[in-house]
């Protein structure tokens, strides 16, 4: 097993499919020019995302699976890993503060870059979220919200589209029953569910590199898929999960960062 | 008083003249505890308390000091501030309390700031000036926030002297056997008015908020301000926005001429019914960019109530700081990080300044003390958190006790029960021993914690610790706590 349980379509049809997608998005009037993307650096994931990565200037949703729906620890770290790979300040909007900043630093999001906003209610969270997205000078805007209606998400998506900012709605509920809300449709471009998996057993006592099950539940102009990955490393990069016996988790140095800088520059010019 | 000030433990009385007699005007806490009260003739006071220190009262100096204090309040707390001699300051906090994190937090901040300068203060927030005046002086609580509409109930038990009535009327009411506001408010008005004049009813109505009472704000010396009178009162939000648009550019011009930028701006809107509505905006850095100010002010228009119309608008800079000229943009520069101060300001005016922050490392091994909040635009510090051990994404606000079974002295638990769920530990990292910080207090002289990162059979990872080193009782209770959740 290669640890990647997703069904790949026939690769011959890809160019034709790309052309069709291009046409559809042009009909939708969304892209005069091609949108910048933020690749994960993992071909398995990037190839499943339209454009080859997480679209910038768009709203993405992340939620935790199981118990993590309440704590959003894995989901938060996933979001921090994405935000850490952007350039510029990051706005992190919460309604109750329990983020432990050293953990963000360990996935590549330095404490110097994160500005926290502690909003009193969900309404305030969404208002600050929209304002942050409209500004356009931030690397990413992360907001921990419970309820996200179609209308609210559409506003956020429009704000992100006009400014080119990357918005991550970190869905987090107070009680487990609230997580059913994640089934409601929203205007976000992608929607992820992150669940923790047992780490790979080490030959010595100790906890190995954390592993996650990443479910891409929804992707605009893309298919859903499930990946098993190793959690973000110090640069916020995921790694392909190896289930090979006795294999130690190696830091995922898959790319040399030049692509991220290119993205940043492209955004700064735009 | 400087070096001439008497020792704080000495009984002190300030004396002044009342007609031809010299009477005690005010006393300090020591003298009050000894039983001396204002109004006593000086000769009697000296006879009763031989070691009393007596100094001349300086009403003019007191008044000036009060005005200085009021100006400080005006700069820091709320736009409309008035002195309430001899010993009070009145603030209209409408539209300003959110900047300080709500009314309770605002009061606490005020009282604390005053206490640090050696002033003991009491504070109250209520619907009307009269109610707040009475509750701050005669209420039991040091700080009191009266919810809207409950001023009458809160005041019922206060003595009638709290109503700002002349002394002879208070004495007259006492003679009638009325000593509390509640019964007085319940009495028929006509006989009262016949006997004492309209004053009693007027003060009652002012206190209960039935009659408007204007607060005449003090003004800083030479304020930077722009005002505009309207021939016809205005009320529509769009009109107000347009007028803000005409007021701001001249103000920015004034600031530029002085080489200053504003940190705090007040827009006073005087209504035709002689009440004033206020908008206050604060910025993280000195600002004199007209576009940004207009946007910040216009975001607040919905918070004001124009009533029957606004006839005069005054825009004042209540806190200005020097601000140099800066080159805005250059082609030679490498594209710098975009400026986010505008965003910070508009967010701060929505959620309050203290709700916007960054975390900075503090050199402490105790996880809950290893960070501090700094303002969002504070200068960067070079240091970062140490990166030896994985840290949990979520740190619980306070560690939660768990039932755990572990081998002593230094093995991770075999299982633990948290929030009613029993979790079997599959693998663990640790212990990471953290010692108490003896310089914080005697209690931490010997304490220690052993932190473990544990993973349960379903793959969830937690940060749990044992209070104590597992061997010595004085190092902690040896109980287990869950402190964080890993991703």
Structural classification of chain A: alpha/beta
Integer count of domains of chain A: 1
- Oligomeric state, counting identical vs distinct chains: heterodimer
Largest sheet of chain A: 9 strands, mixed
CATH superfamily of chain A: P-loop containing nucleotide triphosphate hydrolases
List the helices and strands and how they pair.
The complex is a heterodimer of chains A (270) and B (487).
Chain A lengths: L13 H14 L9 E2 L4 H4 L7 E2 L2 E7 L3 H4 L1 H12 L5 E5 L6 H5 L8 E5 L3 H14 L4 E6 L4 H14 L2 E6 L18 E8 L13 E9 L5 E6 L8 E2 L17 H12 L1
Parallel strand pairs in A: 3-7, 3-8, 4-5, 4-6, 6-7
Antiparallel strand pairs in A: 1-2, 8-9, 9-10, 10-11
Helix pairs in contact in A: 6-7
Chain B lengths: L11 E7 L2 E7 L1 H6 L7 H7 L4 E4 L2 H18 L3 E5 L3 E5 L10 H14 L6 E3 L3 H10 L4 E3 L5 H5 L11 H9 L5 H6 L2 H8 L2 H9 L16 E11 L2 H22 L1 E12 L4 E12 L2 H9 L11 E13 L18 H11 L4 E6 L9 E5 L18 E13 L6 E6 L2 E15 L12 E9 L4 E7 L12 E6 L2
Helix pairs in contact in B: 5-10, 11-12
Quick summary of this structure?
The complex is a heterodimer of chains A (270) and B (487). With 270 residues, chain A is an alpha/beta fold.
Walk me through what this model shows.
The complex is a heterodimer of chains A (270) and B (487). Chain A has 270 residues and is α/β, with parallel strands linked by helices. Chain A has one domain (36-269): Rossmann fold (3-Layer(aba) Sandwich). Chain A has helices at 14-27, 43-46, 68-71, 73-84, 101-105, 122-135, 150-163, 258-269; strands spanning 37-38, 54-55, 58-64, 90-94, 114-118, 140-145, 166-171, 190-197, 211-219, 225-230, 239-240. Chain A is globular. In chain B, 28% of the residues lie in helices and 31% in strands. Chain B has 13 helices and 19 strands. Chain B has helices at 29-34, 42-48, 59-76, 103-116, 129-138, 151-155, 167-175, 181-186, 189-196, 199-207, 237-258, 290-298, 341-351; strands spanning 12-18, 21-27, 53-56, 80-84, 88-92, 123-125, 143-145, 224-234, 260-271, 276-287, 310-322, 356-361, 371-375, 394-406, 413-418, 421-435, 448-456, 461-467, 480-485. A 6-stranded antiparallel beta barrel of chain B has the order 14-15-16-17-18-19. A 4-stranded antiparallel sheet of chain B has the order 8-11-9-10. In chain B, helix 5 crosses helix 10 (199-207) and helix 11 runs antiparallel to helix 12 (290-298). The model of chain B has no long low-confidence stretch (mean pLDDT 86). Chains A and B meet through helix 4, helix 5, strand 5, helix 6 and strand 8 of A and helix 13, strand 12, strand 14, strand 16 and strand 17 of B. Strand 5 of chain A pairs antiparallel with strand 12 of chain B, so a sheet runs across the interface.
